[in-house]
Amino acid sequence: MAGSNFGEVFRISTFGESHGPAVGVIIDGCPAGVKISLSDIQHQLTRRKPGQSNIVTQRKEEDKVEIQSGVFDGVSTGTPISLVVYNKDQKSKDYNHIKDKFRPSHADYTYDAKYGNRDYRGGGRSSARETVARVAAGAIAQSMLSQLNIKVISWVSQVGDLVVDQNAPTFDLNEIEKNIVRCPDAEMAENMIDLIKEVRKDGDTIGGLISCTITGLPVGLGQPVFDKLHADLGKAMLSINAVKGFEYGSGFNCVSMRGSQHNDIFKKEGDKVITKTNYSGGIQGGISNGMPINFNVAFKPVATLMKDQESLDKFGDDATVSGKGRHDPCVVPRAVPIVDAMAALVICDHLLRSKVDRLDQLLS
Amino acid sequence: MAGSNFGEVFRISTFGESHGPAVGVIIDGCPAGVKISLSDIQHQLTRRKPGQSNIVTQRKEEDKVEIQSGVFDGVSTGTPISLVVYNKDQKSKDYNHIKDKFRPSHADYTYDAKYGNRDYRGGGRSSARETVARVAAGAIAQSMLSQLNIKVISWVSQVGDLVVDQNAPTFDLNEIEKNIVRCPDAEMAENMIDLIKEVRKDGDTIGGLISCTITGLPVGLGQPVFDKLHADLGKAMLSINAVKGFEYGSGFNCVSMRGSQHNDIFKKEGDKVITKTNYSGGIQGGISNGMPINFNVAFKPVATLMKDQESLDKFGDDATVSGKGRHDPCVVPRAVPIVDAMAALVICDHLLRSKVDRLDQLLS
Amino acid sequence: MAGSNFGEVFRISTFGESHGPAVGVIIDGCPAGVKISLSDIQHQLTRRKPGQSNIVTQRKEEDKVEIQSGVFDGVSTGTPISLVVYNKDQKSKDYNHIKDKFRPSHADYTYDAKYGNRDYRGGGRSSARETVARVAAGAIAQSMLSQLNIKVISWVSQVGDLVVDQNAPTFDLNEIEKNIVRCPDAEMAENMIDLIKEVRKDGDTIGGLISCTITGLPVGLGQPVFDKLHADLGKAMLSINAVKGFEYGSGFNCVSMRGSQHNDIFKKEGDKVITKTNYSGGIQGGISNGMPINFNVAFKPVATLMKDQESLDKFGDDATVSGKGRHDPCVVPRAVPIVDAMAALVICDHLLRSKVDRLDQLLS
Amino acid sequence: MAGSNFGEVFRISTFGESHGPAVGVIIDGCPAGVKISLSDIQHQLTRRKPGQSNIVTQRKEEDKVEIQSGVFDGVSTGTPISLVVYNKDQKSKDYNHIKDKFRPSHADYTYDAKYGNRDYRGGGRSSARETVARVAAGAIAQSMLSQLNIKVISWVSQVGDLVVDQNAPTFDLNEIEKNIVRCPDAEMAENMIDLIKEVRKDGDTIGGLISCTITGLPVGLGQPVFDKLHADLGKAMLSINAVKGFEYGSGFNCVSMRGSQHNDIFKKEGDKVITKTNYSGGIQGGISNGMPINFNVAFKPVATLMKDQESLDKFGDDATVSGKGRHDPCVVPRAVPIVDAMAALVICDHLLRSKVDRLDQLLS
After folding, report:
1. pLDDT in tens, D255-285
2. Is the Cβ of B355 closer than 8 Å to some Cβ of chain D?
3. Fewer CB within 10 A of the end CB, N or C, for chain B?
4. A226/B305 touch (CB, cutoff 8 Å), yes or no
5. Contact B358 D31 (CB under 8 A)
6. Cβ of D185 under 8 Å from any chain A Cβ?
7. Distance CA A234, CA A230 (A)
8. CATH superfamily of the domain spanning D5-363
9. Which of A4, A80, A82 sits opposite D28 (nearest CB)?
10. Which tens digits make up the pLDDT trace of C182-231?
């Protein structure tokens, strides 16, 4: 109801404020027998960590994760897995200047109106620091998927007007982790880094696009009506801070296409049913068809600027919000592991959900 | 789990196949005291009905709705409201030719793989006929919103390459129901109708875009983390048949914008806090800020063509799917009331959810 | 939230008032492949039907059930199954005399206070007529269990002070359906019938106890903490009208027992692990251990008497509630199929839930 | 699905094993504005703590609780509240002797069969140590109830054959916390303590009964069908370790009562509607009627004995389970705060759920 949990079977519940003692997550419904290593979880958190490069926020957090339950002798036991990361580098004083002010395009005003009070330090619960919990839980989901040979890969495909061409010869998914912007085209990565630095120099921020592909999926994930696989992926992505849009397969381009062009024709490849094109993005009728799942997620420019902005305070008076604190000039490099995590969580959940579709599978 | 229900407090559960006896819905959690009129529900169903004009499918369904429970003396009693529409014009024989074949970009293959059997007549549960239940339930939600002075308005904003200009002097929301394509620009409506007819003549289909605006909302709807208001709107829209993308506020355009351009500056208008621009689309940090909510929904071209298409049958052999049956050349004119319905359902659910945010409101 | 649904995976949503047009249920999450016969459902409804004997209410309802969706060629398709029973013998006029009065130990007062209005005819939603939907859904669950060789059997084990002795030589579960009180001891059945008739002659009513046993269950159903198998069975039973208590295994007798007496010692019987005694009632740590599950459910005497009773009306004035209408002098004979149904629903739900406990089962 | 969460609006998710690093809970849906004090939470944990007297287990745990989120300046902010208690006195070696053995009437066998592996140390997740999380969360619920003037009081009403007489002149709820057995009759408390000591001397254990009363409730809590207030209370209680039965109001005694005796007659007391008797236990039709809620919970004798017992090991061979470790001879003295906690959680949840019953309340 209060919306801090996600998933039906593989279900996570998160907690934590940006400048409170800790952020963390309980994963309930992870099956027994998943191999879980602290270093795999830590690896994903490190991909998300502040201070990882010179184009992201310089807040210094180790983001060291602890496993509090649910894992015994390196495997999940079927009971809830609790993961916690204690906050270290909370410069709460940095936020006294906005205690009573509403930062433009932040959640200050809406939280204040909704709850009557709020933890104003660093955005409190509305801070993207909450995604630490998602990434930690997602790492467990990725461990499970890896035992099932399913792969989730995300990357930065656009920053500002700089668009990656997926058909360029320089496009290579192995490049993603080799540059600080997480772009699969090494040359474009350089351009993006330059753009982000330039924007930061202006005290400004810039938007970006993340693309994701999921391969190795069986046919049959997703539920027919409201819990279509892409509807749950869409909700997962739209729940990430700063996201403004989601599209899968042909996406918004479908609007100007004709059916004869858009339909994906089935054919056999060995024993496997595949489609000649993949405008469906690997999902038909809400259910995976075995082709790769492809989707895009649009991230807005970060709302915190290193500039003064006009605004209001909570008494309704005019106020100036000045540019202070440590923030990202562009959110997408650090959002790649968050997209990975949310995608992995949705897939694990639907994998488990799809296990009870048929009585003949229960009888076996 | 099987995904045929939607909403947490104002919760609907739907049932029904395209060519089964009936489609319907139970609404659980509608508060006592909502004025409910059969004719209001019927009105919305008529907006969605097949055969309503010469640019939609000619299946003839009255779509006459019955209220089976939950309403007494014209008002809701707080108990579940059951609505049912019996199917009349089921030409099931029309579907014998596809009994064992997988229609391209339909759900035939995925349902078959998932369940091992399926009701192949007219797509069964994967048919857009399922949306009858959504529209009926949405009509109840709209009745509740109307008592709270909240308005949901959707329209066709693009068909193929024909794009409505919201800033044109001819743009008028009062036009929407005056033309059969449901476009708020009378002249563009004519062009769209011509395009749809031309496409149909080719035995082909075309995609489209629906825009929606919601006004009169209080500040504070939506939950902070996973159940952000736009995340739930996004899921609602993505769960509608043929939808490939969702964006709100600035949407995908945000990717190439700078923060200084994208931030919405607060100001006072009388006693009310408003923003100078509305790139946030009425939602900040996942919570409504009192400005109009705006979003777009992309619909793919209908997959059923009046042409032969290559495919496979369920035995893995090559097969030809021939173009038969009664179908829409473009789905958006009839999808407008579906978008209205799903939006109204999300808003009612979050209105109720937001009533338990604060202890001081419980004490009063 | 409004509580008209039950179950997590095998989930039902019910609707309907005693004197409205219909009562019914949607079952979402029934796996594909369950053999479903209209006559099996009808059979269970007939066991619950009013007017079935001279010791129950004489309201005349055929209780003829229709399947509206989810079944194709005699098997479930995996999509929602909708079942509806139209009300026929609604003598709504019978209830005008209580329109503004609160019947003692009924839900009139609490509904009125909760909702501000209510359908007063025959108790509306609070009527035990709502259990028609449970029995119909339970019949589907029983069909699934029967394909898995799991048996649920309930019977009347006490009426007033007349207690069935399970160790008597005359105790025989095959007797249950052979007498109108549904008692497994033919002689005791006669005594119970006499008692019920005597009570009815006084214009009074009497309480009763139903016992249930479930056999053929695999080890491992139930979840460790809140959704223990007996906790869900308990909730299911306590949600039935007129139930005041639930106990399983040793039940309330455990209070005066010692551990050395109460512990069930494990032993092998062939390849199977069993226990020498079964004070655990087939459930240990909330999880089935393969032994029969046993529980008891206490039903209060029906609140409607054929006598005048003092009370209040909704204006706060003194009022007399007179004894009118058609009611059961003792609820347990007709409640047996309701207990069966609710037990079967819980077991189906937990069977499905237990299918995602282990990764090795997902890999196979 | 995996059942580690409880509640719909005021929802808790728990984690932790007896001998893992920590046990804890996330509370999601606690309204903003509840006054929260660490010492109130600690107080309830201290009531549940091992080693508190000479009739309970001598495991030494401080049970010091930390608040990790959701509280700012001493009040709840509306965001998730995370509470954690680190385990200190884990003598895991004590459990090596049962690593491969199934203790009688414990969850060893069922967990092993369900999950394929288990954390055998101290029962792992099946240990009553899990209730630390419930008591911590319940303390928050009790803080909220206290701001609403609602009181939950539980006590030991029976140990073995020693039954408290509620009508005795020595019965006094103020006595509960004055003796180590938590019995409201000082003299009976002495007898109970003697009995427990005697049982312990035998290396044995004994069952007990806890009674609870809830006062100050408004009319209207509870939902009509499956989520009746007593059904949710029943599930809450049955989910506590060692509970075998639940009854409310007249409970199992209703079976032998007549309606004319059992019906609670309404009357006015000032402006308030009350009933002359309270066999309904404060709940009619599943909804609170403003009278005190009364219920009883039966606890079995603890399964761990200080005696050798025959059993099986996980290889199917005969094994002897010897009596070692630190355990309670009778569970009820420490279970009183657990019953308090679970009752408070149910009431908070239903209080919030009842706030969206009526449109007129939304309009105000």
Report:
1. 999 999 999 999 999 999 999 999 999 999 9
2. yes
3. C
4. no
5. yes
6. no
7. 6
8. Chorismate synthase AroC (3.60.150.10)
9. A4
10. 999 999 999 999 999 999 999 999 999 999 999 999 999 999 999 999 99
